[in-house]
Design a protein that fits this description.
Blueprint: H1 3-14, H2 18-40, H3 43-60, H4 72-91, H5 111-114, H6 118-128, H7 135-144, H8 149-156, H9 160-184
Helix pairs in contact: 1-2, 2-3, 2-4, 2-7, 3-4, 4-8, 7-9, 8-9
Length: about 180
């Protein structure tokens, strides 16, 4: 959704317009669900977390301030990330890592663009689930949900250069793991 469309939708959501809520779900429910499912691999937990995310969004929608660097999509994914982090904290699974390398631009297609079957996608996702946080979330936000680097920085509450570093290292690590898996199989 564009910023102008976002603002109109926000006004309607604040006014408790039911059709606006339906439009919000139509646009964002599937990507938010995928984010949770691909992060953990559990449909039931993903559904529960998706519901929690939208409940929190409705409660916080009046606080949304749109500008060029913070889209509605990034705002919703920020809430989703907080829900996911709370789950990890409860399960003591969260591990933080900080990086300072710059992303090196690449003309090569991403791992996700090379996936040609559902089985291959599931293999890639199961490999990503083994990554530490925040690399796992950053990979999912970047390559599955298509967020821009600056949007990911906003969602993750990280400096842009750290996000670039995580994307670069995670993509390299993922390619290495996947190439070992295909050469040994």
């Amino acid at each position: 959704m564009e910023i102008g469309v976002d603002r109109g939708l926000i006004k309607r959501l604040i006014a408790r317009d039911e059709k606006a809520y339906e439009a919000l779900l139509d646009e964002y429910e599937a990507p938010i669900y995928r984010f949770f499912y691909y992060s953990q691999g559990n449909h039931q937990i993903a559904q529960d977390q998706c519901g929690e995310t939208f409940a929190r969004f409705v409660a916080a929608v009046a606080n949304f301030k749109s500008d060029n660097s913070h889209s509605l999509k990034a705002f919703i994914f920020g809430i989703a990330r907080n829900v996911l982090l709370e789950t990890f904290r409860k399960n003591r699974l969260i591990q933080e890592d900080v990086g300072l390398l710059e992303e090196v631009p690449s003309d090569r297609p991403s791992v996700f663009q090379q996936v040609s079957s559902p089985d291959e996608l599931e293999y890639v996702l199961s490999t990503i689930r083994q990554f530490k946080e925040p690399e796992r979330q950053i990979l999912l936000l970047r390559f599955i949900e298509g967020l821009k680097l600056d949007e990911i920085a906003g969602v993750m509450k990280m400096p842009l250069n750290s996000v670039k570093s995580h994307v670069h290292r995670s993509r390299k690590k993922l390619c290495e793991i996947l190439s070992r898996g295909t050469s040994s199989g």
